[in-house]
Amino acid sequence: MTAKRNIIADGLAGDITRAKVEGKELTKEEKQRLRKEKKQQKKQKDKKGENDEKAPSERDKEKPVTPSSTPLSMKPPTQKAPSAVPAPSTASLPIPIPMPASEAPGPSPSPTSADKPVKSKAELKAERRARQEADRASKQGKKGGEPGPQASSSKPKAPPNELQPVVKRLPEHVQVDDPAVVKKLAKKLERQQTEGQGTAKKRSGVKIPLRSDYGYKVSLFSHLHQYSKKAPLTQQISIPSTVIHPSVVRLGLQYSQGIVAGSNARSVALLHAFKQVIRDYNTPPNEELSRDLVNKLKPYISFLNQCRPLSASMGNAIKYIKKEISNIPSQCKEEEAKNKLQTCIDSYINEKITLAAEAIYEYAIEKISDGDVILVYGCSSLVNHILCEASEKSRKFRVIVVDSRPRLEGREALRRLVQRGIRCTYVLISALSYILPEVSKVFLGAHALLANGYVMSRVGTSQVALVAKAFNVPVLVCCETYKFCERVQTDSFVSNELGDPDDLMVTRKGKTQLEHWQEVPSLGLLNLVYDVTPPDFVDLVITELGMIPCTSVPVVLRVKNVDQ
Amino acid sequence: MELQAVLMAAGGGSRMMDLTYNTPKPLLPVGNKPLLWYPLNLLERVGFEEVIVITTKEVHKMISTDPKMKLDVKMKLDVVCIPEDADMGTADALRYIQQKVKTDILVVSCDLITDAALHEVVDLFRAHNATLAMLMSKAREFTETVPGQKGKKKAGEQRDFVGVDGTGKRLLFLANEADLEEGLAVRKSIMRKHPRMHIKTGLVDAHLYCLKKSVVEFLVDNKSISSIRGELVPYLVRKQFSRASSCPKDKEDPDQDLNRKDGNSSLEILRTAPVDEPLLQLARERSCWNDHRGDMSAAYHGGRLRCYVHVLEDDGEGVCYRVNTLATYIEANRLAPKLFEEPAVHPTAVVSERCQVGADSIIGASCQLADKTSIKRSILGASTTIREKVKVTNSIIMHGVTIEEGCNIQGSVICSNAHIGRGADIKYCLVGSGQRIEPEADRTNEVIVGSDQLMEI
């Protein structure tokens, strides 16, 4: 009886795989057989300890059971528009695989009570394994259909019980439109636990609230977060924040309100906050500082990420700190370790930001000659520093500051340059092609340099670089090496940051035209923050290691990794 | 720890003596809960776990012993009793507890009833690293007739003039009408830095302040400041725009008037830089943010002292009441039931079936309501006894009151343990604590208090 059933099961499995491969609908008999096997499997789970002589007779009874309920169970609820074939293909899996497993221990002759718990454990294990494989298969199918908007879900995916193709995991911050991913993130934030505690102690979870998105998102960017300044994350945490260190809460607020803006400023402020955290940190008993402190920092980093997505420079700084913390020898005393970490942070800032700025200035000053007309875009702290220092060295040049809404950062750059006595002109980006014939050089700052040579910077930079290229004006990007990151992207859509859409509203003469933009169903406000400039438009990158072409970024990264 | 909460509950209620001569102000019942419960509930809801309560011994005794004044708060209350004879202002009280203050403080007054989002005030305090952040709300018109007020309402209390900048958050100017003899003078230094200032009147100060720890240390040095609202806050607002003191000058002339030196040095306490200042300075330099535009100065004009205010403008943002006059007391009682969801009729009250209790009324514990009574828009305190055929409308009845048959109470406030004889007709009166109204009395618009409580001239 068992052998026969096994043969049927195998045959069924073979049929189903054949059907999947050929893309045909399962025939009626196959469907019926599937339903029968599923019912049997369910019955097996329910009546585990029962006598097995009864089971076969029950199975015979199940045949004429109404098939109406099963078509519903056949299609598992998928989020994307489910097509006919992938759904049954994933649903069919759980049935043949646990079947032989449940069959095998089943019809053994009258199991004794001693054998019963052992066999049910094996059954459970097999079922769990089958369920995992089914989940993996369904995830495979979903992942395959997700990144491309033209989800070709009509084509069946490769049968998952063969070798799984390697699919790179997408970071969650570009999967905001997938509810499952958002739910997973919410759970992860809730459960952000401090690991490493003994099993005897109760695990204390640090609950970081999840910030919800605001307003209608333009469909091309619906995979990114869009937060509102009017709904800060501090609404959801208690006011005397005991869970999160007060300086981290303050920093998060300053990020989300834009008080600390700019890649360098954000990194320095982050390291400053971490210095406070380390200073107020006390190693709990039975813990090692090197392990516990890193775990303490994790919820703070998630909190800051929720307030405003981390920049590449911040990411590199965090990596450096974590490495330094884990390199602390275990026999080091707490005070000593804390002092060591504070000096590490100070030296990092000194080397990578302050001294790097000096070095970049040394290189850049060779490129500025008397009588130059230099164009800058937005407010880059590094470019401002270079120009201010150059004017002190009495180079005669004048500056054209190009600005754009909604941030209007160029005004701040203008203020700093004019304060030093530099002759400046101020235009908006729409006047770029008008002003460019006058320009001799373009100096741009960068938020990050990607591994394929693309420059990620404030939105509008690629425009400036493009028009400059059209006018044959050299474009120089100034960037410290700690902003180099190993990410690769070729367009500004896949990974970006969406600012508060309400920033685009402007009040002129007492009237705000876009005040009720949310009520217009076909209107979406898009406030992009970053864009990427291809390396063809950039002539030179000035770093503290020298003046390199854009394509040498991966070399620098490799050398840096070797050093570390 | 980020913030410590300090609750000021030692005030005397000088503007409603008729109510407070027997019951201290923090224990006045509002919606059958002591007034003290409301700010404590606010702090608990927001997430505080400990509160320092500054109060008198009398109030402390009543809180801990009186079972009626049940304070079901789960926070740890650290009660500090100040001596009653010392006429201490709120700033003096802060100086008194200086040892307990370890971080920045949030000072709340006991007569504040609000459900505003406190995080707005605290966010201003955190984000801008402010010295002072406070809460203000638009004053509301009181439509109810206030008992004991004969004739037209008085012109109202002295107004406050509040000057804010364009964003509406930075506090530039704060003065009370009483302090401005000739007119409103605005210093040139303010106008130079903030050419556009909006001056608002008609704002009620919620007496909720976030203060930096250095302010408490400053108070210890400056013993002349005794009230937070009256003196400290206007002083801080003024000093935002005063020129930074020049220390070398003082060193050269030690015989110069010491007053100036002391004033400058104590001001420096307010302006002291925290540890790691160079890093913060670097971050601020590199940041491309400025709080104003149009002139050549950096963010905040380089000033270290900053005061911020959050104004509750529309009604959507919450209610805010300060119960310091009779009118606000009645108004608060009117709206208090909406602030917490408890059953209107206490489970231990004995309400007979032939009695009509309106939806906006609150019946306290152990009340006894006889037949044919009608209670509309009123609040009955605990253990009150209402006999038959009584009509109570728009009134506030405190605990322990007995109202005999056939009475008609309208728009009145009957304080605790009073006794209203049968057939009395009380309209818009305030019956003091423990008073007896004779039967068949007909009082309108009177304040009935005992002769010993009448003011001494």
Any descriptors?
heterodimer; A: 564 residues; alpha/beta; seven-stranded mixed β-sheet; three-stranded antiparallel β-sheet; 45% helix; globular; B: 457 residues; 32 strands; 24% helix; elongated
Short structural description:
With 564 residues, chain A is an alpha/beta fold. Chain A has helices at residues 2-22, 28-46, 54-62, 70-74, 86-92, 98-103, 115-145, 179-190, 246-257, 263-279, 289-307, 312-326, 334-367, 381-392, 410-419, 432-435, 461-470, 553-563, and strands spanning 372-377, 397-403, 423-428, 441-445, 448-449, 455-458, 475-478, 507-508, 511-512, 530-533, 540-543, 546-548.
Structure notes:
By secondary structure, chain A is an alpha/beta fold. Helix content of chain A is 45%, strand content 9%. Chain A contains 18 helices and 12 strands. Chain A has helices spanning 2-22, 28-46, 54-62, 70-74, 86-92, 98-103, 115-145, 179-190, 246-257, 263-279, 289-307, 312-326, 334-367, 381-392, 410-419, 432-435, 461-470, 553-563; strands spanning 372-377, 397-403, 423-428, 441-445, 448-449, 455-458, 475-478, 507-508, 511-512, 530-533, 540-543, 546-548. In chain A, 36% of the residues are buried. Mean pLDDT of chain A is 79; it is low at 52-115, 144-162 and 193-204. With 457 residues, chain B is of the alpha/beta class. Chain B is built from 12 helices and 32 strands. In chain B, helix 4 (90-96) packs across helix 7 (213-221) and helix 7 runs antiparallel to helix 10. Classes of the chains: A alpha/beta (564), B alpha/beta (457). At the A-B interface, helix 9, helix 10, helix 13 and helix 15 of A face strand 1, helix 5 and helix 11 of B.
